[in-house]
Specification:
Largest sheet: 6 strands, mixed
CATH topology: Double Stranded RNA Binding Domain
Radius of gyration: 13 Å
Distance between the termini: 20 Å
Order of helices and strands: EHEHEEEE
Helix content: 10-25%
Strand content: 35-45%
Length: 97
């Protein structure tokens, strides 16, 4: 499953903090792209780590979320402009590739 979502509607940070973990629990998601504007970038990134995603030490805009009972993971890229998140990209990848 591929998901692409773009919205001019402003949603509170709490909405995205709830939605992204739901996407990460999907067994069918291969790629997801969400084009949004979130002003609380730090709070969103903190919620990702609390959910279990690990920040890439070499790329501060990249996170890795291991899929339980699998050799796959979701690579989560946060696109930023100054202190705002302008996009979230989620891609399923395999450790064995």
């Amino acid at each position: 499953m591929t998901l692409v979502y773009g919205s001019s509607k402003t949603r509170p940070i709490e909405y995205w903090i709830q939605i992204v973990p739901i996407l990460l629990k999907s067994s069918h998601l291969k790629y997801g792209q969400v084009n949004i504007v979130v002003t609380e970038a730090g709070e969103f990134e903190k919620s990702l780590t609390q959910f279990g995603a690990e920040k890439d030490p070499e790329n501060p805009h990249m996170f890795k979320y291991s899929i339980p009972d699998s050799d796959e993971f979701f690579e989560i890229k946060i696109e930023k402009y100054i202190y705002q998140i302008t996009g979230i990209y989620i891609e399923r990848k395999s450790n064995s590739a």
